Amino acid sequence: MSGNGDGTIPSPSVGSLSEIEVLPDQPKYVCSLSAELVAKAREELQEKPEWRLRDVQALRDMVCKDYPNLGTCLDDAFLLRFLRARKFDYDRALQLLVNYHCCRRSWPEVFTNLKPSAIKPALESGFVTVLSHLDTEGRHVVCIRPDRWIPSNYPITENIRAIYLTLEKLIQSEETQVNGIVILADYKGVSLSKASHFGPFIGKKVIGILQDGFPIRIKAVNIINEPRIFKGIFAIIKPFLKEKIANRFFLHGSDLSSLHHNLPPWILPEEYGGTAGKLDISAWNELLLASEDDFLECVATEMQTLDLNLADKVCKCSGALKNLYTVFMPILEFVPGPTERDRHELISLNCGLKRYTGFFIPLPKIKRH
Fold this sequence. Notes:
alpha/beta; 16 helices; Helicase, Ruva Protein, domain 3; globular; 3 domains; 51% helix; CATH 3.40.525.10
């Protein structure tokens, strides 16, 4: 699929409920939020427990009616992520869901074979990890360290894959869906040559995904040890940032006391003036790698749905072929028949159509001249 340059692509075709299969039973949702977080979700996200399942079903119905070929999971728990990310606004949640899938299909370098075992070098480099402790608002802190990346080892897209899988794992938690996350980015040692890998194309793609193509609430981005070149990097990405997100960027330089105003020392590792011990990436890597089956199941579900949608499209195309054949077959009687090579190509085409539709194109006899 072709993109619009901002991480999204044109919306899939509109369809009707009659064009899709009857939906299978969805896993029953059981809320895991504490009473405190239920109250927080009600206040901040307009989530009413008594209406929650009704809202999920409303979003599911919109997907089935407007985007039957989207190829998405329709579980309660999955759809709830998008409703929470858009404060239970049905239309905005639907658009976010569409963007989520469009982003995944428009950047194959990032989203093909996307699973933890495929990005082990990026994980082992320590480019991205999650701190062991939550902040005072109950939010996970995603720590990004570009200096850990050696460009000769693997392309920059592997880092983006590592970040994306990290977010996918985090958003499985209902607590994260409500509380959001915080990002801590350490730009110590980032050179001009390394920064050059992060150009406008990648910048726009990543920002497009984080702002409009992923169901997560980014509550703050803390930048530390940023070199002078970071002003150039930020100048590249700022035009793509919404004002609300741009206002959540905090540049601390090398002033750790400034960082500690946003993130308390007791949750930070020693490297950042904290008291939580040395920064350890092994715990998060092990957790992510142990989740391999979760990601494989998601990919299999999406591919299965897409395959069914493709079959549906081929069926419609075969119907059109039947009509065309009826119209043009009489004309073919007045033109030379196919050669042996042409006949073999038609047979190959028939085999493909037969797989999905059971329809064969009748083959004209070869005329001898």
